[in-house]
Amino acid sequence: MEGPLSGNTDTARAELAASDPVMAGLVERLGEMSIAERQRRRGVTKPDAYGALLRTIVGQQLSTKAARTIHERVLALFAGRTPSPEELLAVSEEELRAAGLSGRKVSYIRDLATHVLNGELELERLDDLSDDEVIEEIVAVRGLGRWSAEMFLMFHLGRPDVFSGGDLGLRRAIQVAYALEEMPTPQEAEERAEQWRPHRTLAAVYLWESLANTPVE
Q1: Model pLDDT, residue 39
Q2: 7 to each of 3, 10, 24, 26, 194, how far by Cα in Å?
Q3: CA angle, corner 210, sides to 206 and 215, nearest 5?
Q4: Quick one: pLDDT at residue 216?
């Protein structure tokens, strides 16, 4: 599968800008953007698929700083690296909770490890599946919902045409960019994103970045 900006980057950006005057303004203001650039700016190193899903569970409902801290504490139990599913299951709940995980998140990461070990979640074949099939595979793991699956599609698999209407940041960015009185509902955000096909992932990057670069009047 191709990444969001594989092929002709200029063409993807130009087509996105041509789809919508507001998006054209974001492209002009923010310049060249991509998933890889967003990760670079945030100092994120791309882990393997298992490590990416593990980090997703660890970071749920936490600030970026808190999520990074707890994730590092969990990895510290394994000499600073992502543990194998077997290693994770061998560690006691007490040790994982001491690293900052809630009891619920401990059960979630163990369920992830179990799904990988018993073959219910075949990580090596996810890249060969369609977006909908990947989502179906991931949401079968406790603690991983549609939003988590969509972020995995964008940031790990590099799928070019994914949009998450349930993402609060994207909905807020749409509200600001389009000067809406109210934040759009997830369905309304999804409907607006239809005009950005087949570059909805790139559109999401511009929307997220627009929040961090909103001019002060």
Answers
A1: 66
A2: 9, 9, 20, 22, 22
A3: 150
A4: 40
pTM assigned to the model: 0.86
Beta-carbon-side half-sphere exposure of residue 52 (alpha carbons within 13 Å):
21
In the chain, CATH 1.10.340.30 sits at 49-155
pLDDT mean over 191-200: 97
Q: What is d(CA 10, CA 2) in angstroms, rounded to the nearest whole number?
A: 16
| Structural fold of domain 9-42+161-212 | Endonuclease Iii, domain 2 (1.10.1670)
Spatial distance between the Cα atoms of 53 and 49, rounded to a whole number of angstroms: 6
Please say if 167 is a catalytic residue: yes
Average pLDDT rounded to a whole number, residues 151-169: 94
| CA pair distance 200, 126, nearest whole angstrom | 20
49-155: in CATH 1.20.1560.10: no
Residues of the chain with CATH 1.10.1670.40: 9-42+161-212
Which one from 20, 48, 127, 167 is the annotated catalytic residue?
167
- The two tokens of residue 34 are 């991509």
